Every structure is written in C-alpha cells, then in structure tokens.
C-alpha cells in the first residue's frame, strides 16, 4: 500500500511539473509570437517586451491612467409605503435632486503588453494598434455634493400619509443613494463613448511619446477600445 501511494505521488508530481513547464513554455511562446508580429513596428534589435513594459510602467505607478472627469446632476427617488394587514393605505415619495456631483474616469493599464498589440503595415511604416479596456468610473474617487444650495428635496405625501403625523420622509435614504446613482449614470454607454472619443487622441500622443525612441520612424500609435 505504501509503495502504491508513493507511486501515485510521484506521478502527481511529474504531472504538475509537466503542467508548470507547459504553462511557462506557452507564456514564452506567446511573448515570442507577439515580438515576431510587432517586429516591423520597432527599430531593429529592440527588446519589444522590455520596451513596452517600461513605457507602460512610466504612465502611472498604480497602472491606472486618469483620462477624464465629469460633473453630474443626479435625481434619486425614495418610496415609503404605509400598510395595514398588507393593504397599502398611503405612501410618501421623496425626490432629491443633486447637482455638482463629480466622477472621474480611468483606463486600467496593467494588461497592456505586446500580446495586446498588433501592427498594420510593413517596412517600418503603418499603425501600431494598442488594445485598451474601455474607460470606467473610478468608484474610489466619487464626490457627492454636500452644499445644501445645490440639493433640492421634494416630499409628496399621498392618501393616509397626508394626515399621519408619524410618517417621516426618505430624504436621508435618498442622500445615501446619490453616490451609487452617480456611478450608474456616468457608466452609461453614451457617456463612455464620449469619453473614449475625448481621451483616445491624448493617450495616443502619450504612448507615441513614450515609445518613440524604439518605434520605427513611419509608425504611429492608435488606440483600439475593447468593450
């Protein structure tokens, strides 16, 4: 029995070694394939992997590039119902309108590697296409308006709630929901497409500048958004 267990363990270790070696080999081959595909975009004898990683590392220490910010007006509604034995007797609708909320958009850069690039052209002339994830709202950097001059609250008591002195409004719950509402609004496709159009030329200029020493003279950087 001990011999059988030892044999199984030996086989398992050999299997893991083979899988690990295969994974490393796959990564190395992928990098080599990417370098081969992009060779025409870079000057001769340039280490493409090292050059690209160094350039991306210079963009932002946390590999997240702030590309835009937007000021938003957000409207939030809170509904509070009064029931007796499951029957609705009244309701209070609180509507809160808040202007001057601020969100910022970022583009994650940790995935920018030669494997995420492609070269269209030949003989040192053409476009180096850099695939980037679409801009997204940085949820850590959302400013919610706190100035009461920019916040409007409307309360509508309906039916029994008009005469019920114990019914409160939902203003606090509405205020607490503004942040999530701002993120949701700012993340709508129409806003994201607008941000993409605004920031793509600036990112292209930045990457062109960082890669210029290594790029062939006739190659221009172009951003392709992955949605």
Give a written overview of the molecule.
It is a single chain. By secondary structure, the protein is α+β, with helices and mostly antiparallel strands. The protein has 4 helices and 7 strands, in the order ααββββββααβ. The strands form 2 sheets. Strands 1, 2, 5 and 6 form a 4-stranded antiparallel β-sheet that branches. The chain has a 3-stranded mixed β-sheet with strand order 3-4-7. The relative contact order is 0.18.
Which runs of at least 5 residues are low in confidence (pLDDT < 50)?
A: 1-29
The shape, in one word, is elongated
Strand content: 25-35%
Q: Rounded to an integer, what's the Rg over CA atoms?
A: 28 Å
- The sequence of SSEs as H and E is HHEEEEEEHHE
Total number of helices? 4
| Domain count | 1
Number of strands: 7
Task: Give the helix level as a range of percent.
Answer: 25-40%
Mean pLDDT score, rounded?
78
Computed structural class: alpha+beta
Largest sheet report: 4 strands, antiparallel
Distance between the termini: 55 Å
